[in-house]
Every structure is written in structure tokens, then in C-alpha cells.
Amino acid sequence: MKVILFLVDGMRYDSFEQFEKPKRYIAESAGSLRARTVYPPITLPSHVSIFHSVPPERHGITTNIFTPMADPVDGLFDILHAAGKKCAIFYNWDELRDLYRVGHIRHSYMARERSSELTNEYIAEEAVRYIKEFDPDFCFVYLGWVDAAGHDYGWMSERYLHAVQRSWDCIYHVLGVTDDSYTTIVTSDHGGHGRDHSDDIPEDMLVPVLFRGKDFEPGKEIPDLKTIDIAPTVARLLGVGIPENWEGTARV
To answer: Does domain 2-237 bear CATH number 3.40.720.10?
Structure first.
């Protein structure tokens, strides 16, 4: 079993159902289009919660500035490394470097450009190249252009929706090098409204969490799904023990 986690930054739960590729993915997946992210719905706190399966009240990060945890919690990359799993990360937002420790990742690719259509394509191309050559157990593929489009042009604007559609093209480019041994997950860290995403409202707090693979029944709705459930689900899929201090629930 191998797992790829795709995160499209800022992709609202109601932003993509009209497009062909996400429609296909939804039909082949279990999960929810209205899973709940953490509050505040901000990029770094949300990512730290996804990878450490605890809310910001536990890890203490409530802005996009990283601070060490007062009561450290092992993250997903830490436990996979300890279990001997090969992990890789592909991203372009520098703050995500704090999701892993040096030595716990076999490969990291950091695109230096601001999030754009080309940046997403660079990240997808590098993920394809690495997966084909090195066959890692777990990959995290971060696509940041949608969030940039939301801030620049507004959530649900024409340019924002174009960024959503093209991000799904990048997801399917990577899916093209996978087979039945892979489970893939598509999610987001937050949604947005206007040109912001900091409020406790559905537009900001509800995101897709979609699991596609042989362990998941296509079309099945998973109730009460939260983004902090992703890390324990990945751990269970890869046969790795789930830390007792994680708060999420494995959904497999």
C-alpha cells in the first residue's frame, strides 16, 4: 500500500463539483465535501493540525508563524520515518518546511516561485518524476495557486475557479503514474470568502476530504469527518501505529 495526499490550498467545498475531473474523483471516492477544518482556518495552523492530528489549542500555532510546541506531538512524517517508510514532500510555501524534520524525508522539492499555474505544474511534474523513479510509500503534494487566486481575485471569482480546475488537472497528472496499490486523498486546509479566510463560517471552515482506493467504498459519505482524521487514516493504511496523543480518528 502507498498513499499520496494532495492538498489544494484554499479550495472551498463548493468550488469544483461542476468540473469533469473532480466529479469523476468524487464518484470513485469515500469521504465528505463538507469536512471540517480547524479554527482558525489559516494555512499553517491547519497544516500542523492535519499532520499532527491535534487542534491549534494543542499545538499552539494560530498564525502563519511557526513556534515550537510547548508539549511536542509527533507528526505523520515522524512516525512514518520511525517505521521505515519512504516519504516525500512537494511544495512551494516555505513555512511548510516545519511539517517535517531533516532526515525524516527521503526527498523534498521546494519550488521557489510564488503560487501560480506554472508553480502547480512544476510541483506536479516533480512529483511524477520522483514517484516513477523511487516509488515512495507516502507523498504530500501541495498545490498553492488556488489560495493565491482567492486572495488576488476573490473566492469563487472566475479566475479562482479557473485555478481550481487547473489544480485538478495537476492532480490527475500525478494520478496517471499510480496503480491499484495507491490510496489517494484530496483535501484542503481552508476555504474562503471575499478575499479572506479567517472566520468560523461554512465558506471558510468546510473543505473536501476524499479517500480513493481499494479500502474505501466509492460514493460512501463518511459522517463527521475532520481534517485531523487524515493523519491517523494514513498511518492505518500504511500499517503504522497511531500515537495515543493524536485526537483524530482513523477512517479505515
So the answer is: yes
